[in-house]
Amino acid sequence: MKHISLLVLNDATVTSIDGTFQILSRINDFQKYQGKPPYYTIELVALESQTAINHGLYTIQANKLLKEVTHTDVVIIPTICGDFNKIIAANKDYSDWIIQQYHKGAEIVSLCVGSFYLASTGLLDGRKCAIHWAAANEFSSMFPAVNLITDKIITDEQGIYTSGGSYSYLNLLLYIIEKHLGREMSILAAKMFQIDIERKTQTQFAIFVGQKQHGDEAVVNAQEFIETNYQEKLTVDELSEKNGVARRTFERRFKKSTGNSVIEYIQRVRVEAAKRQLETNRKTINEVIYEVGYSDVNAFRSVFRKYTGLSPIDYRNKYRS
């Protein structure tokens, strides 16, 4: 039997707290139907008996105060919403407790952008972490020591689990259930809650937005030039020359600032432009490919699949009305 401490952080989202509580509670019901004892003891743990969340819209009653929980098997950090720096500061009193529980052997499960809070404890330094694609740039700026993963929706490293995407925390819960109770129970939960158990990536949902809050003016100028002229034939030599920087230095600075090589950045901008066209107009696939700057159809299809997980035609069929 495992004790679950579901933390009620200030400005957590009610859906991630209640959804987690409901799913894990139902696992105990499934156990009962199979003639087995309950597997989880689930408690809402907070600093105070009542905690306001969603900017005061809801109030959640805790089962236990943090100071009353000296040992737990699993710590769940819910999704948070708002200014991450302010939320981290408002919840700083959880930090030492989380670290202590991890060193005592507890598993740490972070839901979506709850990883901002987990990263603030230092437990993610040097480890992999999944994050919602829209928060990736901000996360990288705040926590450069974390190995950010933006394509996968789940990471599992040394007893610390993270998920990327608001409701992909449901997939992480299925993953945890499978580790604890086996594949059969995880499949049963997926069927009962109608969760796509096979979803492994968030690439098809991601919208590429280049990181520009890095302070390197030459790189920002190059990014803006790429985004304005992606249909043209662009080369690293041309971009470095335009900004008066030697090619090797330019490539190094660009990668450090944006997290992408120059060529990757051009590819991602072109793919994003193609996605918008595939979603909204009736041009042929080849017309779209040529209009975003590619002359080699096969090369574009390969790049498009790399960043979306889908072929151009599959993407169009999925997202065009």
TrEMBL record:
Residue span(s) of domain HTH araC/xylS-type: 220-318
A Pfam family per the record: DJ-1_PfpI
GO molecular function, one term: sequence-specific DNA binding
Keywords in alphabetical order: DNA-binding, Transcription, Transcription regulation
SMART domains with a match to the protein in the record: HTH_ARAC
Top-level taxon: Bacteria
Stored InterPro entries: Class_I_gatase-like (IPR029062), DJ-1/PfpI (IPR002818), Homeodomain-like_sf (IPR009057), HTH_AraC (IPR018060), HTH_AraC-typ_CS (IPR018062), INH-QAR (IPR052158), Tscrpt_reg_AraC-type_HTH (IPR020449)
PANTHER family: ARAC-FAMILY TRANSCRIPTIONAL REGULATOR, TRANSCRIPTIONAL REGULATORY PROTEIN
Protein's name in the database: Helix-turn-helix domain-containing protein
Protein source organism: Paraflavitalea soli
